[in-house]
Amino acid sequence: MNVTTSTTIDTGSEIVVASPLYLAYDTDADFRLSISLTACVYALLATFGIIFNTCVCITTVKYRKYYTTLRSNTSILLAVESLLEIMHQSGHIIFFVKFLIFGTKFITAKITSFMMFIPTFGVGGAVCTLFSLSADRLLAIAIPIKYTHFHQSKYIMKHLIFIVIYIVHYTFEMVYSAISQPNLMVSGGLSDLRSAPPGAKELNQYLNLAVALGSVFNYLVVGILIKLRTDTSDDRIKKLYRSLSLIVLINIGGYLIFYTFIAFTHLPFILLTPVQYWYCTLVYGLFLNTAAASVGPILYLNSDEYREAFKRAARDLLKFIFGKTANNSTKVIPMTAQR
């Protein structure tokens, strides 16, 4: 549980709530440096994540008619996951831009909640979509014949309805918790919505942990069913196992590590100052943001069709940027000897 003491300060133009983080910002140069480094490191991670996830979205939409894998239910859900991760990681870019313009200056929780509305939307949706993906894989293995006869549009719509409901609940609770004390001074990052006054947002953190654990459980069941029903010495099955392992360890694992830490800090015998909690959140947040950027690389490493689609997209992009050099090259025609 966080030990929190806030002080009310009259700035002349408004009355603000100076949290321990805000007071540390005024007195601790190392803390101000940490905010600067955080903005840069997370923006770098987010840039890679946005690039990788954009590749997944574009490849799925543009090249799905050429590759069977990209037309599957799973690929559509992966594209949804990537889109939501783009929204999520855009929050770190917003924070970096805020840092470039205003420096490490603190802003109110109310302003932060508006700035981070779309990123919060993305975080909630990404966690929920990971569960949808695990449920999709479980259905494909548990009832393969029936699964192949699902009407794709209706099937995907059911997943999307579930995801949207989760997003609305998650976003409302996080933003409402932040604006319940609108004049609380925070650094302006996405994690500050978790540092806002306690309330229903704590339930959201436990809910995200439960969803992540549910995703891991589904994949464990998938692994067991595959082992029981197939020959695990087959190269294709080995690749599938490797893919599942990477998804659990990296993709879901990053979220699981982060939300386990968040839940752990709310235990009554865990006493952290707000500054200590802030630092710990940043460290464990690296796992979450690595997970957010991992969908594209995992697909590239473990799917031949995705790999070929990514390469095709890269070739098309180069042609678009540099033009069709082949058409501009000089064609050499060998001369025959005259008689």
TrEMBL record:
<dbReference type="InterPro" id="IPR019424">
    <property type="entry name" value="7TM_GPCR_Srsx"/>
</dbReference>
<dbReference type="GO" id="GO:0004930">
    <property type="term" value="F:G protein-coupled receptor activity"/>
</dbReference>
<dbReference type="InterPro" id="IPR017452">
    <property type="entry name" value="GPCR_Rhodpsn_7TM"/>
</dbReference>
<feature type="transmembrane region" description="Helical">
    <location>
        <begin position="35"/>
        <end position="61"/>
    </location>
</feature>
<dbReference type="Pfam" id="PF10320">
    <property type="entry name" value="7TM_GPCR_Srsx"/>
</dbReference>
<feature type="transmembrane region" description="Helical">
    <location>
        <begin position="206"/>
        <end position="228"/>
    </location>
</feature>
<dbReference type="InterPro" id="IPR000276">
    <property type="entry name" value="GPCR_Rhodpsn"/>
</dbReference>
<feature type="transmembrane region" description="Helical">
    <location>
        <begin position="114"/>
        <end position="139"/>
    </location>
</feature>
<keyword id="KW-1133">Transmembrane helix</keyword>
<feature type="domain" description="G-protein coupled receptors family 1 profile">
    <location>
        <begin position="52"/>
        <end position="300"/>
    </location>
</feature>
<dbReference type="InterPro" id="IPR047130">
    <property type="entry name" value="7TM_GPCR_Srsx_nematod"/>
</dbReference>
<feature type="transmembrane region" description="Helical">
    <location>
        <begin position="276"/>
        <end position="301"/>
    </location>
</feature>
<dbReference type="GO" id="GO:0016020">
    <property type="term" value="C:membrane"/>
</dbReference>
<feature type="transmembrane region" description="Helical">
    <location>
        <begin position="240"/>
        <end position="264"/>
    </location>
</feature>
<protein>
    <recommendedName>
        <fullName>G-protein coupled receptors family 1 profile domain-containing protein</fullName>
    </recommendedName>
</protein>
<keyword id="KW-0472">Membrane</keyword>
<feature type="transmembrane region" description="Helical">
    <location>
        <begin position="160"/>
        <end position="179"/>
    </location>
</feature>
<keyword id="KW-0812">Transmembrane</keyword>
<feature type="transmembrane region" description="Helical">
    <location>
        <begin position="82"/>
        <end position="102"/>
    </location>
</feature>
